[in-house]
Amino acid sequence: MYFKYLTILPFLFGYGFCEDCLLHYKPIPENKQELLHRIDSLKSQRFGASSGGFTYTVMICNEISKNQPNAAATKGHGGDKNSLVIGRFNDTHIVGGSEWILLTYASGDVLNKSDHCNNTAMRTSIMITCNRGSDQVLFALDDDDAVGDCQVTFTLKTPVVCSNTPHGLSKGSVFCVLLLTGGMMYLIVGVAYRRIMTGAQGIEQIPHYYFWRDLGNLQADGCNFVCRKGNGREEPWNRITSNFNDPADEPLLHP
Questions:
Q1: 91 within 8 A of 107, measured Cβ to Cβ
Q2: Are 86 and 108 in contact (CB under 8 A)?
Q3: Does the pLDDT value for residue 32 go beyond 50?
């Protein structure tokens, strides 16, 4: 198997009449419906590629031409109007994961001259994968010698199928990792410095040991200052003025 990536020409086909892929399920499972719903925004686009003198045209769950009913993938020469149908959307199979969808069109035209196909119909598979790096849809043709002319596989890279789950560490996780790493470096370097440079032993090797020991008391003092500062308020006026009537002060007021 070898892969040949081609120049891609995705362009709008127009919004209006829009078909939908026909799956062979009655009723259609919810997971299959969800997969079809995820590629709704691709149904109005036509994708084309050329290889080996042939022109390939693919649409997602939509009809390429009214002259070829249900044809969602065709193969032909540049100026040939009688293109070979290599897949129809009324015979669709779909599977997928969180960031990929495999869409397969069956019931294409039968190649009577191709003995290795055993007169079977053409099939087209489109591997739709997540492409977060760009908003532009990329398209590639995958030539498979193992299946010859019986099946054509395309690769479609698009942000449409990307999940909303963020990849990598969040900002909070990065902050926690940096904080933990900084704490470990502070402890290791501090212990080594105090042990080698000052000859500290035991728990006194911990850097700023007395500060950390008293940290609880400092926190309690801070809480007491902020939350209990009302305990030091002045006495009410009636309690203060009541002291003015003390008989012991009378000689001082009347010389």
A1: yes
A2: yes
A3: yes
